[in-house]
Structure formats: C-alpha cells, structure tokens
Write a structure and sequence with these properties.
Strands 1-2-3-4-5-6-7 form a seven-stranded parallel sheet. It has two domains: about 180 residues, TIM Barrel, CATH 3.20.20.450; about 130 residues, CBS-domain (Roll). The two termini are about 35 Å apart. It has 13 helices and 13 strands. The protein is globular, with a radius of gyration of 20 Å. It is of the alpha/beta class.
C-alpha cells in the first residue's frame, strides 16, 4: 500500500518454497505469477526471484520470461525481488544479470535488508527501485530499541541511495506508526488488509499516521527527482480496447490512470480514471467506443524524464489547466515507461521540503 494515499499500488506474490528445490530454480516464481494472473490481478506484481537464478544468466530465467509473455504481462508491471544467498564470487554476474533484467523493463528490488546477508555496497552498485526490510527486523519494531535503531538507519541508507523502502509484514499499529515516522511510504502486511483479501476483491484503505517532516535542507529549491516518487503504473497495449481500460479501472479503485504503450514500452496515450469513465458512461459512450481502440479517446501521455526535478514536473503539470492533476508518465533514457508519478505527491513533497520563514 501507498501510505501517502492509502491505496493499493501492487500485489505481493508469495511463492511457496518446495524442499529440495535447486536454489537457482524459478519454478516457484513462475507458478506464483500464473496464479496471480488467474486471480485477475491487474495491479503491478512483486515477485520473489532467487539471487542464484539471476547469477546463472538468461538461461535460468527463460521460464520466467515465457510465463510473463503467457500471462499477458509486461516487464514494467513486475517488481522482481532478489532474495537468497549471494556468494561473493557471483557479485559481478549478479550485477550483470540485474542490468539485463532492467534493460528488459523489469523493476528490481532486494529483499531482507537488515536480516539477510545483503552487503550494503551491493545496493549502491545495483541501484534497486525498492528495498524490502527484513521481516524478522520489522517484527522487532518498536519493542526492541536496538532493532528499531538498526531499521531506521537502514531506511536512511536506502533512501540516500535513491531507493523506495517497503516495510513488510506489518501486524500492529505501533509498527505502522514507527515505520511511517521514518519516512517509509510503502508497506505490506495483515494490518493493512484482511488475510482473505484478493486482488479483485475491491477497495482496501487504511488510516495512517502523518509522516514526520524531513528536516534535511538538501534540494529544497527543486525538490526530489521524479524517480524518487515513482509508482508502478498499470499499462495496456496501444491496441487495447476502451472496454479493456474500463475493466482495469474496475479491478481496483486505487488505479488512477492507465498508460497505453507500444511494442517497445513507449507511452503513446494515457487514460485518466475520472475523465475516461465519465466519457464512457455518457450518452452512447459504451456503445460507440467499448470495442474500439482506447487510444481513440485517450489523452496524449504527459511524459517526464526520470531525472526531472519535482518543481519542473509540477510546472509541466500546470501547463494544461484541464489536466493539471493527471498522472505524469515517467520515462527512461530511451523513452520507455517506468511508471507514474502523481501530482499530489509532487505537491506534498515540495511543500514538505520548503524552508520555514
């Protein structure tokens, strides 16, 4: 969940481990992906991937790529969480494998920070999109002051490296309040959703404490770069019908936009939730457009490079008064969709960074 908005932004896939499984085997990951697809999970997915599978190269990951294709997913909709033992001799191969996955469009995360053998300098070299705190470490918060201090310091390190931090397995209000106070935006756990919640089960929202304002004066004038506020986006093919877009919006209320992408993952259009659904609900809207390409009635995607400062992104958002609160589409150096950034997040972070007078 995004603790800033209380909305669901991704679904974690728990891949069950089978005893005796080769550490580099991705079959559990593949089964989890296919099960999530059968459950009509249209939100981005977080998938665990063994570190040794990444070290082993493209051959061992081929079943995963095939499952992604078979499920109709796009790599940009998947956050691959690298987990497990990372041998010292495999570091170079791991970084090369991560570069390959990132080039294919996947978002990269590391799991178990603080309780797994994960070298901090490896995080600096790998530049992950998300770092997941260790579940055992989170379980010690806030009763164990030493564990809490360790977790808070690791959050600071991860954020300084430009990564989102996710707090998993939250079970108590006190844990949520502590992690929120550290500036963590993403969280997961039974406290936030009932144990039987399904991706297509409807709205899940939770009241969260206000974050502690960040007193760091760095980049006060320009704010953070948009890649620091990046959220996974829901994407559909540029050939998707208007009916497909309506179905995506109907699957989860927290989806604010759907990005239409071409075969190279470059954004070609954007459908804002309120405006698109209102148009389709109008006179003859569904009858005329449901079976036709959504691109006919979608807006042009408002794209920003991932290194754009928040202030500059807000200026772009304000150029069109009719779309001032539409999500911005963040693109990489070759124009591929990396995800979205919400204008409300830009406003909150810039306002929070403004110096007091």
């Amino acid at each position: 969940m995004d603790l800033d908005t209380g909305g669901v932004v991704a679904v974690e896939v728990a891949a069950g481990e089978v005893s005796g499984r080769v550490p580099s085997d991705v079959s559990d990951t593949v089964r989890g992906l296919l099960a999530a697809s059968r459950a009509a999970a249209l939100l981005p997915l977080m998938l665990p991937v063994p570190a040794r599978a990444v070290i082993g190269g493209s051959g061992g990951l081929a079943p995963l790529h095939e499952a992604v294709r078979a499920s109709g997913r796009r790599p940009r909709e998947l956050i691959l969480v690298v987990e497990g033992e990372i041998p010292e001799t495999g570091r170079r191969a791991l970084l090369a494998g991560i570069d390959g996955l990132r080039a294919a469009g996947y978002l990269i995360a590391f799991g178990g920070l603080g309780s797994a053998p994960l070298p901090l300098d490896l995080l600096a070299d790998a530049s992950p999109y998300v770092v997941v705190l260790g579940r055992d470490l989170v379980a010690r918060v806030p009763r164990d002051p030493r564990g809490s201090a360790l977790a808070e310091s690791l959050v600071g390190v991860a954020r300084a490296l430009g990564a989102h931090v996710l707090a998993p397995a939250l079970r108590e209000e006190a844990q949520l309040a502590a992690t929120r106070g550290w500036g963590i935006r993403l969280a997961q756990g039974p406290l936030l959703a009932p144990i039987d919640w399904k991706p297509s089960g409807g709205r899940v929202r939770v009241r969260v404490p206000l974050p502690v304002p960040d007193a760091t004066p760095a980049a006060v004038l320009l704010g953070p770069r948009v890649q620091e506020l990046l959220l996974p986006g829901v994407t559909l093919s540029s050939e998707a019908t208007a009916e497909d877009v309506v179905a995506a919006f109907g699957s989860e209320p927290s989806i604010t936009s759907v990005v239409l992408v071409d075969e190279y993952q470059r954004p070609v259009g954007s459908a804002d939730r309120s405006r698109f659904l209102l148009f389709m609900a109008g006179a003859y809207g569904h009858a005329l457009h449901a079976k036709k390409p959504a691109s006919r009635i979608a807006d042009a995607a408002r794209t920003v490079p991932r290194t754009t400062p928040a202030i500059a992104a807000m200026q772009l958002a304000g150029r069109d008064a009719s779309r001032v609160y539409d999500d911005l589409v963040v693109v990489d150096e070759v124009g591929r969709c990396m995800g979205i950034v919400r204008v409300g997040d830009l406003i909150r972070h810039v306002a929070g960074a403004a110096p007091s007078r």
